[in-house]
Amino acid sequence: MGEHLQILVPSINAIPKTNKSLFRIYRDARYHLSDPIKTRIGVIFWQGQTHRMQSSSFYMHYDSKEVFVATGIRNFKPPLLATYREYIQNREKRAALHHIYEVLKAKGYKLPEPAYKRYPRDFDKDEPHAYLALYRSVYAFTTFVPDKVFHSEKIIDRNFKIYEDMMPLQEWVYELTLYEN
Asked: Concatenated DSSP letters for 27-73?
């Protein structure tokens, strides 16, 4: 998949090693004594030089019941959350993200739920698309049941199509990660 994604993002980080593109299968035993092995497999391809989990990425995890395919960042750490909130103060950036989300929803992709109920201080809730300030992540995803396609090389083409659809979001998030306040 990493080689295919280089068509969309030539600088993508696709490193087939544990704690790089492959998530480890062992849980931290300090917190998971009764279930030390994860029940799903996760793969991530990220763009940029920051930590893979705080970079714009293409992500997939799966278990025996579900395949989850996503693009973006699933959870902002506090510094990136502050950067995101400052970034979307710009009306054009906010409108662009809103438009990308609307296009993805029209194609059947799902979006995260807002994480907050109150607007951040210094954020005008009457601004167009102000609802975006209630998020602590920016990503889109889809899920499906593992099927014959999943268990064949055709999964690469299926995921590539999903990632191609989500490319505008990936680019928006990548620009966010380059933004310096």
From this structure: --TTT-SS--B-SSEEEEEEESSS-GGGSEEEEEEE-SS-EEEEEEE
Share of the chain above pLDDT 70, in %: 92
Supply φ then ψ for residue 109, to 5 degrees: -80, 155
49-100 pLDDT tens trace: 888 888 899 999 998 899 999 999 999 999 999 999 999 999 999 999 999 9
Residue-range domain boundaries for the chain: 2-178
> φ and ψ at 131, to 5 degrees?
-55, -25
pTM of the model: 0.89
Q: Could you tell me where the beta strands, DSSP code E, fall in the chain?
A: 41-47, 56-62, 67-73, 138-144
Widest pairwise Cα distance in the chain: 51
Q: Which of 166, 168, 92, 179 is nearest to 132 (CA)?
A: 92
Q: Is the pLDDT confidence value at 38 over 80?
A: no
CATH number of 2-178: 3.30.930.20
3-state secondary structure at position 123: coil
